[in-house]
Amino acid sequence: MSPSPTRVLVLNSGSSSVKYQLLDMRDSSRLAVGLVERIGEQTSRLRHTCLDSGDTREALGPIADHEAALKAVAEELTRDGLGLDSPELAAIGHRVVHGGMFFTEPTVIDDAVLAEIERLIPVAPLHNPANLTGIRTAQALRPDLPQVAVFDTAFHTTMPESAARYAIDPKFADRYRIRRYGFHGTSHAYVSRTTARLLGRTPEEVNVIVLHLGNGASASAVRGGRCVDTSMGLTPLEGLVMGTRSGDLDPAVIFHLARVGGMSMDEIDTLLNKRSGLFGLCGDNDMREIRRRIDEGDEAAQLAFDIYIHRLKKYIGAYCAVLGRVDAVAFTAGVGENAAPVREAAVAGLEGLGLAVDPELNAVRADEPRLISPAGARVAVAVVPTDEELEIATQTYALVGTGSAPVGNNS
Prior knowledge:
By secondary structure, this protein is of the alpha/beta class. Helix content is 37%, strand content 19%. The chain has 15 helices and 14 strands. The protein has helices at 66-79, 111-119, 128-141, 161-164, 170-175, 185-198, 252-259, 265-274, 277-282, 287-295, 299-323, 333-338, 340-347, 359-363, 388-400, and strands at 7-13, 18-24, 29-37, 45-50, 56-60, 89-96, 107-108, 147-151, 207-213, 217-223, 226-230, 328-332, 370-371, 380-383. A hairpin with a 4-residue loop joins strand 2 (18-24) and strand 3. The model is unreliable at 403-411 (pLDDT under 50).
């Protein structure tokens, strides 16, 4: 009897890109990683690395669509002896941004699942269509293989109604599926669990505030391994100041821009999602560049940084109140993992809440989870590199690894 397959291919299909990783779940090792970007353009690029050999290959030239992109990925994997036809491939795990309230856990994809993901397009118009394209293309390439959807929103479905509901008439909220869903769920799940292990405890024993700070940014309050509040809402626009998104905003600003500014809904959408946040405040959404400008005395960059930190502090304080007891605050994602000044500023003045960072520990650059709070601190402050691909692979393999996964499984 041949051994059960142990490999999982993780696909993250964006509107014009596909990120992928192939992992062996016997030891969670990566076999190959890659990125196809600028799909649909003449300047498309595929960058592929085989981790076993260390070889990196890059191909430039037009890639017409996601089908062509995934076929190119399959060819690169085949060149390394890791092709999609390998009997060692157990499943393909797909990142899906919006699963609404219907999908609360990883789910083997069937026609009903696809239809529900499609019905959620109005609340995730930039993401779910691309996710669907990636799924359908992968199904065409390997129709016999389990395809699993892992939803960004699933981790947040444990929020109580008091946190998830907006204070509007439920008749309209229910009709149009208006509620706080939250995003970056795979990252918040992975980081909260890893933080517990860093403290030598189980997830059920600790309360953690997770700060996922990248170009998109979100915070979550995690009590005993379950999310009880998060900063993003119906869409990823709500919450923290982000690279190009405004985050929290008086809704009447939209009415004002329409009535007084004469702006269309599409123009307002573009303003708040693509031309606001750090970029809107100072013209840069790269924290490294903003810090460089601050060092040179740039006042616009300083104000953008101050607004970013002010919002971050508000959420830390709010989630301390929501949780009641906080065991750790964990910084993750591109800014959270690499911008020591952000971490220092975010907890400065919060000593009364038990929060502080050790300057020397905070200045260390490392790829491993680590504590940066002083010895004996009441609340641990941690830097935990996120690994959303590993989280997707882990959830996918847990569902199909035995070969007995139910199709359309959800609760």
